Amino acid sequence: MDGSFCYLAAALMLAGYFIPALRAAEESELKDAAGKTIVRYIVEAPPQVAPAEETDPAKQVGVIFCFQEHTSPPGADIFPVRESLKRLGLNDEYVLLAIRAQNPGGGLGKADHEPIQKLLAWAKKTYPVNLRRVYMYGKGSGGSLSGEFTMLHPELITAAISYSWVGGPCPPR
Questions:
Q1: What DSSP character marks residue 97?
Q2: Shortest CA distance to 5 belongs to which of 128, 92, 123, 132?
Q3: How would you list the strands of the sheet with 37-44, edge to edge?
Q4: Torsion sign over Cα 61, 162, 40, 44
Q5: Distance of CA 129 to CAs 34, 69, 79, 102, 109, Å?
Q6: CB of 66 within 8 A of CB of 95?
Q7: Per-residue confidence of the chain (173 residues) as pLDDT tens digits?
Q8: Pairing of strands 37-44, 28-31
Q9: Nearest CA to 41 among 97, 96, 82, 94?
Q10: What is the 8-class DSSP label of residue 167?
């Protein structure tokens, strides 16, 4: 595994634990041809991103899906990812995406798989996405979703950073 990816993964995990989401981004809707909402999402893209048709890998961007923990608001984990990318000097190299869960209760799960695929297809049409740089990051149910989706769709996702604590409170040290 590439050393820079390991540093990115470690920075994102640490940021997710210690940095709260300080601002809520505005949600948009991805709709099908009939106008029906497929998924509500939040996107943060670099300000000077190249056109979607760009084929030069040096001018393309990666995508990081940021999945929130359990019933946290969509986009709650964009902030720590963005801040980690800034510290690494990579903030102009990634489009960040978050989704609203299909489950009315808020937990992410299997019902979100197809909307994620469609949102990724939209991102590929909208931004110059380098298909070798598509990642998922999540905690809690978002961590479970990122790991599960990555395992089921290795042709779409490069790697996942997934943290999901199962088993109740942390054990004493």
A1: E
A2: 132
A3: 28-31, 37-44, 94-99, 61-67, 129-139, 159-163
A4: negative
A5: 26, 26, 21, 25, 25
A6: no
A7: 566 776 666 666 656 544 444 344 689 999 999 999 999 999 999 999 999 999 999 999 999 999 988 878 888 889 999 999 999 999 999 999 999 999 888 788 999 999 999 999 999 999 999 999 999 999 888 888 999 999 999 999 999 988 766 555 555 55
A8: antiparallel
A9: 97
A10: S
d(CA 100, CA 167): 25
β partners of residue 37: 31
Q: What is the pTM of this model?
A: 0.81
Cβ contact 159:132 at 8 Å: no
Single-letter amino acid, residue 44: E
Distance from C-alpha of 129 to C-alpha of 55, rounded to nearest angstrom: 9
H/E element holding 83?
helix 78-87
Q: How far apart are CA 67 and CA 89, in angstroms?
A: 22
